[in-house]
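User: Let's play a game. I give you a shape written as tokens, and you guess the letters that built it. Ready? Here's round one.
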């Protein structure tokens, strides 16, 4: 939205420096999910792993500038440092310690667990000529670090909270922190909008821009989505992947409209088309507080967009659900297509909407549920037989003509609509949910409707 609103470019980069997590399947899921949502990048996706040579080149230049250095601390030594810090922290909780001893232990623990500042940052010699090393950024030495964030406002931390972060691992591969900065610079990124779980990373990444003499982009950090209970969204709250919502029966335009309103607002308007959103979107409308996932609200928005959907497109989306237990027969499809424009409001998801057409898919003779069998009592069947004769005489099979015929029959027989409608509905639907009876008759078609009535009359011997 931001890029489109400002006439900029929307770029897609697959950050696959973590080889264990960045599988081909994971990448394919990202691309498929974005394609489903219609989020089309202005350039082909860039695979971060394809730029390792460029990342290493920048690390080498930082070494030559003196803004990065070789660090010979081993992973084992760093882990031992953390373990010792935790030991001292736990030791400080022991009973019987003087306040002075407790404070001393906590001070030692805090030093050991503080952001790591390497002893080699100021040019200490290597422990041996062939010692393995990482390349680390020389973090800022002191004072405050401030980020003017487009959503969170002015955020300030102490420089001492930033570690000498690793740029290149001992095997020569770049870390995410280096790769993302180099790629953002080389791709011409001027605005970064991301989750506020990356706010801390911003304070670690900006010194990389400074170390290379580059202009840092503007940053905006959006609060993460929480579950209905206010806790951080997790698997226990339901579906998390984009494609899972597609399988649950939500339309892409509904998902986009809902996600937009989760963290952003413009007046009291609840639902925006994509064109409206592009025209109105700005960072000022993004709230700082975490939004809560509300599937009921998502369902309402999805229902809105299903009602607006083109009939042919909607049928195409519903067809796989209709055919879950076998292919649609031509007569079934014809009935569904006649009813579709009138039943779009019968569900909040595609699966719910598909179930509303079950009475049209049902094959003769219908299986009756308990209530339907009760409605087709001998008395009800007699009334149904009389009505069947009148329905057969209709020449224009429309809901209006059908409704008039049923009303005339009730008047002539001194019957209420309920006395006739209940057995008629039972014979036509088998007890499945269905709307008003006259449209049901029209959608079924004359031959099918009379055939369903005849099935019940023949079975009862009427």
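Assistant: Ready! My guess for every position:
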């Amino acid at each position: 939205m931001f890029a489109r609103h400002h006439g900029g470019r929307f770029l897609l980069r697959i950050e696959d420096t973590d080889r264990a997590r960045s599988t081909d399947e994971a990448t394919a899921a990202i691309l498929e999910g974005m394609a489903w949502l219609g989020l089309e990048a202005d350039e082909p996706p860039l695979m971060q792993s394809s730029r390792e040579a460029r990342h290493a080149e920048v690390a080498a230049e930082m070494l030559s500038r003196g803004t990065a250095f070789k660090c010979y601390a081993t992973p084992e030594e760093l882990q031992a440092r953390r373990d010792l810090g935790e030991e001292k922290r736990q030791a400080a909780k022991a009973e019987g310690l003087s306040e002075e001893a407790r404070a001393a232990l906590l001070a030692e623990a805090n030093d050991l667990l503080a952001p790591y500042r390497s002893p080699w940052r100021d040019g200490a010699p290597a422990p041996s000529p062939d010692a393995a090393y990482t390349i680390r950024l020389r973090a800022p030495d002191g004072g405050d670090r401030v980020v003017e964030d487009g959503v969170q406002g002015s955020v300030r931390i102490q420089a001492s909270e930033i570690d000498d972060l690793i740029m290149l691992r001992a095997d020569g591969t770049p870390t995410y922190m280096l790769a993302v900065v180099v790629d953002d610079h080389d791709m011409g990124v001027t605005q970064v909008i991301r989750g506020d779980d990356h706010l801390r990373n911003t304070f670690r990444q900006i010194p990389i821009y400074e170390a290379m003499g580059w202009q840092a982009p503007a940053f905006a950090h959006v609060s993460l989505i929480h579950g209905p209970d206010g806790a951080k969204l997790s698997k226990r709250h339901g579906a998390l992947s984009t494609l899972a919502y597609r399988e649950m029966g939500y339309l892409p335009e509904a998902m986009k409209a809902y996600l937009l309103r989760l963290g952003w607002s413009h007046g009291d308007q609840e639902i925006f088309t994509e064109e409206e959103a592009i025209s109105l979107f700005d960072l000022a409308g993004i709230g700082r507080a975490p939004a809560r996932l509300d599937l009921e609200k998502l369902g309402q928005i999805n229902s809105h967009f299903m009602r607006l959907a083109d009939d042919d497109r909607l049928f195409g989306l519903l067809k796989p659900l209709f055919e879950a237990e076998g292919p649609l027969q031509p007569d079934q499809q014809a009935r569904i297509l006649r009813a579709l424009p009138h039943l779009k409001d019968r569900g909040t998801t595609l699966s719910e909407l598909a179930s509303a057409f079950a009475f049209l898919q049902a094959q003769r003779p219908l299986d009756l549920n308990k209530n339907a069998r009760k409605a087709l009592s001998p008395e009800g069947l007699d009334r149904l037989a009389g009505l069947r004769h009148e329905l057969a005489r209709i020449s224009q099979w429309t809901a209006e003509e059908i409704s008039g015929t049923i009303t005339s029959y009730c008047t002539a027989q001194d019957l209420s609509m309920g006395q006739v409608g209940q057995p008629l509905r039972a014979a036509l639907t088998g007890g499945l949910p269905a709307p008003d009876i006259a449209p049901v008759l029209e959608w079924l078609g004359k031959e099918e409707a009379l055939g369903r009535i005849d099935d019940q009359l023949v079975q009862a011997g009427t």
